[in-house]
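Per reviewer request, we include the raw input and output of the structure prediction for the construct analysed in the revised manuscript.
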Amino acid sequence: MPRIRELGTYESALPPGPRNAITDVAGVLVGHYTLDSGPATADPDWRPGNGPFRTGVTIILPHSGNLYEEKVAAAVHTVNGFGKVTGFEQTRELGNIETPIALTGTMNVPRVADALMTIMAEAAPHIGVGFPETGWSGYASVNPVVGETSDGYLSDLQARPIGLAEVRAALATASPDVAEGAVGAGMGTSCYGWKGGIGTASRTLPATAGGYTVGALVQTNFGRAEELTIRGVPVGKTLRPPVAVRPPESLGGSIMMVLATDAPLDARGLGRMCRRATFGLARTGSTCHGGSGDFVIAFSTAGRILDRPAAPPIPRAVIDEQPIMSVLSVAVIESVEEAIYNSLLMARTVVGRNGNVRHGLPAGEVQRLVWGGQAL
């Protein structure tokens, strides 16, 4: 299962980082827990709540320290709000995040959010208690940030099998090396009628624009087969999943887009980056159907926002992003676009509940249609 750049010459305005992943932003780590269990054969007596499971959770860590004690600047953007994300309102209000970012299947969201609260309370025991030894009795809370897309075509949604143990397991695997495709939160997703999943990519800005890095990670679960466009080629006009296993067409589907950068931006600048992600999504053929939940989260690893510092906080260095906004936009757009392609090409065929199938996008056919079969 190749990444898009392994199929042929892939021209981009900006070069990728060394991993071509969100973890090219120094300090960022990604971990997965994948739950792939239970029979895939059709069962006329199947009842929800008992599996099979084709689901999981993906964790993105802006840094490896205590995120509650050392928050990072962040912003969120809702492209279309038919989704069940958690933690967006406080992020909009305060401009930071204080937990790892978790991605999972739709009905797992409350359990994953609860797991993050448990884990953060272990790391910061004053959450919900205060600091009685200092005389401060305020009760600090915690804002878990969880995104989702639905994996219900392949997995048993009602059972909600992802909770504390699974989130801990994903955190334990956090690494700069990012697995893609049918892993973690991408185990049971679908994209353009094919198997979707997790994908990532990055771009490096030129020295004249600060030399900063922008990375993207996506969880793809959207689009109809005929809409798929790759590198400007309308691949979906001729390349379709096998008819025998093609499900009814749906106008729904969702995508989570996570952006990271080491550029010292505040929440306003990160919000501008978030809104550019939609252009990368559109390049792949998406028209943002009314039944989709399309969300963006962006954060900066430059600097820390200390939780309730004892002394007045030292002002953080923040740049005026306007002089480099055009090149930041290109970095976001290209990273999101390429991450979506990688999520498709790196995903294997998966058979799920009731024998439902999502086929992996055939790389050879994509190569033929986009590059005329001339792989390099």
